[in-house]
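Technical appendix A lists one of the benchmark inputs used to test multi-chain prediction within the project. The record comprises two sequence entries:
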Amino acid sequence: MTVLGYLANGLVFSSIIVLGSIGLSLVYSIADFANFAHGDTMTIGAYAALVTFGAVGGLGGAVLGLPYGFFIALVVGIVAAAIVAVGTEKFIYEPLDIDSIGLLITSIGIAFIYRALIQIRFGSDFTRFDIQPLRPIESLVPFGVRVTLHDIAIVGSAVVLVVGLHVLLQYTDLGRKMRAMADNPDLARVSGIRTKRVKLWTWVIGAGLAGAGGVFLGLFNQLSPRMGFNLLLVIFAAVILGGIGSVYGAMAGGFLIGMINQLTPFFSDVVEALPIWPGWLARLLESLISIEYANAIAFVIMVAVLLVRPNGIAGEASS
Amino acid sequence: MSALSDPKGALEDLTRAEGWVLGVSVAFLLFLFIALLTGALGPSYFLFLVGLAGMYALLSFGLNSQWGFTGLINFSVAAFFGIGAYGSALITASSSPVGEMLADVPIVGSLVGLPIVGLVVGLVVAFIMAVLIGIPTLRLRADYLAIASLGLAEVVRLIVLNERWLTNGSAGVRGIPGFFQGWPVLSTFPEAMPGLRLEIIPGSPIFLEASFWQALLNVLLVLAFSGGTYLVLRRAHRSPWGRVLRTIRSDEDLARALGKNTYSFKMQSFILGSLIMALAGVFYTHLNLYVGPGDLDPITTFYAWVAVILGGSGSNRGALFGGIVIVTIREGTRFLNDFALPIDPAPLRLLLIGVVIVVVMRYRPQGILPPQRELIWPNAIDGRGTPDKLDSGVREQKGGGGDE
């Protein structure tokens, strides 16, 4: 594959990571804790869509290689993820009387409960949406770009959702309230903002985007109960890279991490080609920069960023 | 001591939670004892479970000295456990490539294969890893530390999974000897002991054979490990060093204002805990005689976390209790799957762990046995003229106070 091909793959994977990281960043800044159940919220969206798609079927026509039924399934996935997240907030997080570290630990318990229930219901094996896999688009293959219409649908839908979120945050009343709350929750509250309601909307938006990300991840790869948890650390890497609490930073971080993840085979080609001296260093680098370590590379970058800029690339100088 | 000389008074002195835990533990032990007598539970398996409980208690002690003492959110328990386990396994296992590589080196070659060398190597590697992971992460805010440590643990797991030339990849390492192999008397002890046949209840005899004596040795080993660790931690916790750690936990800025180098203290606490976790890993290797990358799964980390938060953060007795609960969940789900409900034990375990975390955080965030007098020198209490007769409410508040 050429560089262009890796970049195209990176763009598709980035779209999924961006959808996940925006939600995580929103919840991080407004509910004020690192939500470890976010990855499993994605899994919920994916499996809800799987069940729906199995029930409604294709419904005739298709857009971008995806039957109409899939879009209904996508919406159901988003709604299911949002409902589960709001229910969890109402019944678990809200009554808790603990600090943000306690909430973080609780969210791990929630993540395990989500994943265990899915695994009990659907088994731990990989599954797929019942959609015919497409061949890469012929006209792009000469450039070394092997993307399918499905990939274009993923990127397109992600762009629509991200632009929608941007409009919501910048131009609507709710968006202004959310930004105010992220800045200073106490000040927002004394200014008459109903912070509880804004928090609920944050969960709806964050989990909904995660649900969409989960559905697309299932379309891009496969579905398994661990899919969300496996992606969670990559998403955290993206959020931290962008600076926690900054939605636009999360978008940039997600884009970057997704690209790096998919460009790993390219980097390993580069390392092989470079004349690195001494020989053992070259061998070490060659064995470490390989596709198996694509996720590990993302974590190492995350830790490196934390060392140099504890508030992320786009984060403010001090918190 | 006082519990022995005045058992009734010691019983009355317990808080409600302590009494409750004591009651449940006694009932549980009684249940296991009856199962043993009737032959429903094999004696070797029972001792294996005791060894496993001791192992989880040890793991929880390690986490406790990081989270409970200093407030470090370490989500890389599985990594240090795995480093101890793999370190020892690779040195001692017959199938390990390390033995072949070092066989020609004069003195080192003869040392490879001894479990005690495996123990040392496991601890040294864990020490190096603790320093390497600690340097970048311990300066971070608490929640960043959680994310970064979970990520680094995942890196360790990926390396173990993918470096097949060293770790045999997903197939894991087999052919590991027991811990006492090569020791003067103890290595042949299980074979040397006579096979016993006990018939306590007529018709269901219990056989005590070589595997039983082997398991008994393992239990004694873990008792030595965890007992030693418990004493060291209790001493450390009450020392001035432990007081600094507790200050960091409740208010790091305060500790810094008092002139303490908090980074250095956090690093010491992190290393101490990591070494204890690696010790648990070394023991696990020689108990289970097999290690695979599955043992490095994040679930191992959260077993230890559940044990610690259930027992009470900062409480070593609590960690002990938590270790027993974890084994009950781990082996109980397997038992349930075999005999009662045909549910795959893996997700059921996950579900139970999740539910325990949520329920504890909801109803008793300070844990069931929060540290109270553990933190105070005994003579500081006994030395006072009147024995403190506090009602339990005040005591519970005290216990909760250390939990912030």
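Chain B has one domain: 47-375. Confidence is low (pLDDT under 50) at residues 385-404 of chain B. Comparable benchmark entries are summarised in Table A2.
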